[in-house]
Specification:
By secondary structure, the protein is mainly beta. Helix content is 8%, strand content 40%.
Length: 416
């Protein structure tokens, strides 16, 4: 694929798309830096004004995304855990929330597809770039911006190519595939594969401010058939100063991604590297253990995925119980959909061992996902015996993370 880097600052205007939605943010200035023909660029996230923080929905969305069956057996009170050495499982009931507002994507990024402004979710846990399109029936469009291939002179249909993505919560997206110019952060990829949804269902319809998704996983898990297509990152990588992108996703602000450069002013000390296994398309590595306060718990064979498209941590049940056994008053609550505790308690720090020599420590104050008044919903929940752990924004809130496509590794350090 051909990559062209814009030489001027690009302004992406975001339009309000629904009478129910809050006003869209002001135009986001983005810029490209060039060094000897190679480039780097920064992409800023903004928080969806319709987003409502709900713990049960964070769990539901993550389980659905990875095709896991939602657990729905009565909860069990946490108990004391002395060691962590197996993959036992307890069930969490996901509370019904018929009267609650629909779950929506928390963070979005502005971009241009075929010259048309859209807002999508950047997601390292998937490998497809798909968008709402003008080919959808009107009943499936509730205010989202749609890509109209007829209005793009650079769009070319890939005859015979289709995509279909299905999630465990029964949400789905499917349709046709073409190539067009995609501009993210002022950097363009010519002939980027774009998947045009002609059918969507489930929570995608209710997610009014999100027009689709940009997967930053590896192309091996792309869902286009019969021929898998390359991701945006795989296509832009040869044009970058370094074959990397970094995530600076602090809890206190919306965060940003930088492609092509590692900014040493953004982290403390040295970077700590861990090799990944990209064979399934994920940024996946094995974590040797966790820490709760000053206690170390070993987790042999705990495969983990660094996923910017998930809000919380979904980890082995024994890890979760080890943590909440140190939280007074904590319990696995069926009504709330997961582990909760009195908001008045001080939470212990939680550490994820990236390697034997480096532990990514998450301060206790970052381990609460949602304050519901007297009770708080934890940012650490059980993966219910699934074969992988999902490390979402809760980890990124404490860590500067480098996604290195050249060396096939992840690198971590505390935020500066």
């Amino acid at each position: 694929m051909r990559c062209i880097i814009s030489s001027t600052t690009l302004l992406l205007s975001l339009l309000a798309v629904s009478i129910e939605a809050a006003p869209a943010p002001a135009p986001v200035p983005v810029s490209v830096q060039s060094n000897k023909g190679k480039t780097s660029f920064i992409v800023k996230r903004y928080e969806n004004p319709r987003f409502v923080r709900r713990g049960d929905e964070a769990v539901r969305q993550a389980f659905g995304k990875f095709g896991w069956d939602l657990p729905h057996v009565a909860p069990k009170q946490t108990g004391k855990v002395d060691t962590v050495d197996d993959t036992g499982s307890k069930d969490i009931k996901i509370a019904a929330a018929d009267s609650a507002p629909p779950a929506e994507t928390q963070f979005l990024v502005p971009m241009m597809v075929g010259g048309q402004a859209m807002t999508l979710n950047l997601d390292t846990g998937s490998s497809d770039l798909w968008v709402f399109s003008s080919k959808l029936p009107p009943s499936s469009i509730r205010g989202q911006s749609v890509f109209d291939p007829a209005k793009s002179p650079s769009f070319k249909l890939l005859e015979g190519q289709k995509f279909s993505i299905k999630y465990g919560d029964q949400s789905s997206a499917s349709g046709i595939v073409g190539i067009d110019t995609v501009n993210i952060g002022g950097a363009e990829v010519k002939e980027q594969a774009v998947e045009l949804a002609t059918k969507v269902s489930g929570h995608f319809i209710e997610d009014l401010n999100s027009d689709g998704l940009v997967g930053l996983g590896f192309s091996v898990s792309n869902q286009v058939r019969p021929t898998k297509q390359k991701t945006f990152f795989d296509n832009i990588m040869p044009s970058l100063e370094q074959p990397v992108f970094t995530a600076v996703l602090r809890r206190a602000d919306n965060g940003s991604y930088e492609f092509g450069r590692i900014d040493s002013s953004k982290f403390i000390g040295q970077l700590n590297h861990v090799p990944i296994d990209p064979s399934k398309g994920w940024w996946q590595f094995d974590s040797p253990g966790v820490t709760v306060g000053d206690k170390v718990f070993r987790t042999k064979g705990a495969t983990s995925i660094a996923d910017t498209g998930t809000s919380i941590l979904l980890m082995r049940n024994d890890v979760v119980e080890a943590y909440y056994s140190q939280v007074p008053g904590s319990r696995n609550d069926a009504k709330q959909g997961g582990f909760v505790y009195p908001c008045s308690v001080d939470l212990p720090d939680f550490g994820i061992m990236i390697t034997e020599n480096y532990t990514a420590t998450i301060e206790g104050k970052l381990m609460t996902f949602n304050d519901m008044g007297d009770l708080c919903f934890g940012a650490l929940q059980s993966n219910e015996g699934q074969p992988v752990q999902i490390l979402g924004d809760t980890l990124f809130n404490s860590q500067f993370v480098v996604f290195d496509g050249g060396e096939k590794r992840l690198s971590f350090a505390p935020h500066s």
